[in-house]
């Protein structure tokens, strides 16, 4: 069921929600949280589709805040709120309200959203694109216990990660971090199966994918080792290599569905490691509402500490024309030993 409201108010929207629930025969509310999506008209459809799919696991009231651009000074000075209320099958397993803001009300979106929040329920704010530099200081972000961004959608993902590290507040998270959950699980399990001391690591993936940097930062922060970032054709993350005292541990995914795990003194094995869609990533982030300390530690490790493949170590001379075999990949192993990196044991990966 859809209810369109033009030039409306928050109280009228609340009344329409009650009337809509009664009309479809569900007068009571069984939702567990309020999900606020802040986006533009271009990305609203995809974001709402992902939220509806995630609501099967987390029934929620979804508020989609769409800030419309006014073309003339007269329109920008006029405040206006249009809404579309969806209940029943139109809204997944919860309720959906599309809020289109015009004029001066754009700068006061929190005053529109606040009366529509579910009472005594947690609030999650998600920016699919154009996230603020400091989500916790944003007027809408200040209403939430959990704030979700996506560095992958940024024009410069590396700068986005630097900004996230500088402004991190407990409760912040990023979908680029959720994308590497299966990789972190596989690598931690591999170290559990093969007790060893890890000296260095290499992460390989497509160029503009911040999940590669986050995986490298996680390895560096948990194992206290030098990490090299290598660019590949993708898609996404393609490989992670750990150099240990017992051999090289490799998790290689040349395609987007199946990976190969290679461990010393063990046969190679195929593992499922498919790329997940936005709905699955969002559902994962909605499972926990407490601060993610591991994500915070990875951010604070610093993306600038990752080495680029082919970059010489500070204590080693760069390759010369007379030494064509001294490539960046060949330098990584001895450089890690000469740098005096303190290797960590496998338990640190957890």
From TrEMBL:
This is Glucose-6-phosphate dehydrogenase assembly protein OpcA. Residues 306-319 have a biased composition (Basic and acidic residues). Residues 339-350 have a biased composition (Basic residues). NCBIfam families: OpcA (TIGR00534). InterPro entries: G6PDH_assembly_OpcA, OpcA_G6PD_C, OpcA_G6PD_N. Residues 306-350 are annotated as: Disordered. Residues 51-165 form the Glucose-6-phosphate dehydrogenase assembly protein OpcA N-terminal domain. Residues 170-299 form the Glucose-6-phosphate dehydrogenase assembly protein OpcA C-terminal domain.
């Amino acid at each position: 069921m859809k209810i369109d409201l033009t030039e409306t108010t928050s109280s009228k929207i609340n009344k329409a929600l009650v009337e809509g629930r009664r009309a479809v025969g569900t007068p009571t509310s069984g939702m567990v949280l309020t999900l606020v999506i802040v986006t533009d008209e271009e990305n609203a459809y995809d974001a709402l589709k992902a939220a509806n799919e995630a609501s099967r696991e987390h029934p929620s009231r979804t508020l989609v805040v769409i800030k419309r651009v006014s073309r003339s000074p007269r329109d920008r000075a006029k405040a206006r709120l249009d809404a579309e209320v969806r209940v029943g099958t139109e809204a997944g397993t919860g309720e959906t309200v599309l809020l289109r803001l015009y004029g001066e009300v754009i700068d006061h979106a929190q005053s529109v959203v606040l009366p529509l929040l579910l009472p005594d329920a947690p609030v999650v704010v998600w920016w699919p694109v154009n996230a603020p530099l400091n989500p916790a200081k944003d007027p809408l972000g200040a209403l939430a216990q959990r704030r979700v961004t996506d560095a992958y959608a940024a024009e410069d993902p590396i700068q986005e990660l630097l900004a996230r590290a500088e402004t991190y507040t407990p409760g912040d998270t990023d979908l680029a971090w959720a994308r590497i959950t299966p990789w972190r699980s596989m690598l931690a399990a591999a170290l559990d199966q093969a007790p060893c001391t890890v000296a260095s690591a290499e992460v390989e993936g497509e160029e503009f994918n911040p999940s590669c940097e986050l995986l490298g930062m996680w390895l560096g922060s948990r194992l206290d080792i030098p990490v090299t970032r290598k660019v590949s054709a993708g898609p996404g993350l393609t490989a992670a290599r750990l150099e240990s005292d017992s051999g090289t541990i490799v998790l290689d995914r040349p395609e987007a569905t199946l990976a190969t795990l290679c461990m010393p003194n063990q046969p190679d094995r195929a593992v499922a490691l498919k790329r997940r869609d936005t709905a699955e990533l969002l559902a994962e982030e909605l499972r926990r509402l407490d601060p993610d300390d591991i994500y915070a530690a990875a951010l604070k490790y610093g993306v600038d500490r990752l080495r680029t493949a082919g970059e010489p170590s500070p204590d080693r001379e760069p390759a010369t024309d007379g030494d064509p075999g001294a490539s960046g990949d060949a330098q990584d192993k001895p450089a890690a030993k000469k740098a005096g990196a303190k290797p960590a044991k496998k338990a640190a990966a957890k």
